[in-house]
C-alpha cells in the first residue's frame, strides 16, 4: 500500500522568504505526482503535475522536483506572499489510485 | 469547462435521515472518484468508477453507503441512514485513463449530521 508523508506538518514564515515543502512516498512505481492547494473550507486546486518521467515542473513562482527512485518530491515557492497561506497536499498516482499526504499548513506573515 | 460540479455545497441533516450527494464530472473524463476528508483520517478514497462501472468500492465504510453512476455525466453518493460520524467533506474528482493526466476535484459537499 502506498504511504505518503509530508514534512513539516506546519510552517510559518515571514513574507518574502522562500518556502520548501517535502513529500515522500514508499512505492516508486508511480504514474505521476500532483501538488494541490487547499484553502480553509474550500476544495483542492491543482498546482503542478509531474509525470513519472520528469524531474521537475515549474509554474510561475512554484517549482516542484521529483526523484522517483528515492521516493521524494519537493515543492518550492519563491518569494512567499500572505496569499500563499494555505494547506499544500502532495498526492501520488499509481494505476487509478491517488494517495494523499496529510498536508503542510503554511502561514506567511505580513 | 465548468470543472467538476458538486451539489449541494452544504448539507445539514438529522441522524437517521437519507442523504444524497451529487456530482457532474468533466466532459470526456471516464474516471470518477468519491473521496471523504476528515481531520482525523485526511482524504480517503471511497469508490472509483471507470466508464460508469464501479471498479473499486473497498473504501466504502459500510452498507449504509452506496454510489451510482447511471451515465457518464452524473454520479450520486447516498448515505442511508446517516450517522453523526458521517460528518465530513465529501469530494468528487474526475480524470481519464491516461497516466499523464491528473485529477480535477469538485468544491466538495460539507455534510453535518446532528
Structural description of this entry:
The complex is a heterodimer of chains A (110) and B (114). Chain A has 110 residues and is mainly beta. Helices cover 0% and strands 60% of the residues of chain A. Chain A is built from no helices and 11 strands. In chain A, strands 2, 4, 5, 9, 10 and 11 form a 6-stranded mixed sheet that branches. The model of chain A has no long low-confidence stretch (mean pLDDT 95). With 114 residues, chain B is mainly β. Chain B has strands spanning 5-7, 10-13, 19-24, 31-38, 42-50, 53-56, 65-71, 74-79, 88-95, 104-105, 109-113. Chain B is globular. The relative contact order of chain B is 0.34. The mean pLDDT of chain B is 95.
- Shape, per Cα inertia axes of chain A: globular
The SS-based structural class of chain B is: mainly beta
Secondary-structure element string of chain A: EEEEEEEEEEE
Structural class of chain A: mainly beta
User: What is the alpha-carbon Rg of chain A in Å?
Assistant: 13 Å
Oligomeric category: heterodimer
Distinct helical segment count of chain B: 0
Distance linking N and C termini of chain A: 41 Å
Low-confidence stretches of chain B: none
Q: In percent terms, what proportion of residues of chain B is strand?
A: over 45%
Main interface pair? A-B, 23 and 22 residues
What number is the mean pLDDT of chain B?
95
Strand content of chain A: over 45%
Number of extended strands of chain B: 11
SSE topology string of chain B: EEEEEEEEEEE
Task: Estimate percent helicity of chain A.
Answer: under 10%
- How can the largest sheet of chain B be summarized? 7 strands, mixed
